[in-house]
User: What shape does this take?
Amino acid sequence: MKRVYITTFLTCIAMLGLAFGIRHLFHFHEALSSVTVGFIYEGDESAPYTYNFSRAEISLQEELQDSVTILTKSNVSDDDVEETLNELSLKDCNIIFTNTHSEKFVELAPSYPDIQICQISDMENPPAEHPENYHTFNGRLF
Assistant: This one.
C-alpha cells in the first residue's frame, strides 16, 4: 500500500513539473497568447492514478488562467484513442497529455504533426525511434 502512495505522489510531482514547464514555455514565446491543452485519461477521477493527473490539470488552469484552454476526455479505451485524438485535433489542441498505456499514440502521432503528444512512459517496449511530436514522461519510482 505504501508503494501505491509513493507512486501516486511521484506522478503528481511529475505532472506539476510539466505544468510549470508549460508556464515557462509561455514566457519564452510571448507571441503565443493562448494554448489548448488536452488531457486523455484511461480512467476517471475516482481512481487515484487519474485523480493525480486531474490535480495537475487544475494547477495548470490556476497558474495560466485565461492563457490556457483545457479539454479533458476520461475513460478512453484503446479502441477510442484514434477517435479521441481526432476530436481534440478538431478543437485545435496544441499539446495532449495522456495517462493511457495504449501504443496507438506513437503510431498516430505522425497524423497530427501540429500537436505535441506526451504519454506516461511505462510501456513494455517503448519505441527506440519515434515521431518528433511524440514525447514520454514519468516520475521517479523507488
In short: Strands lie at 35-40, 68-73, 95-98, 116-120, 134-137. Helices lie at 2-28, 48-64, 81-90, 104-108. The longest helix spans residues 2-28.
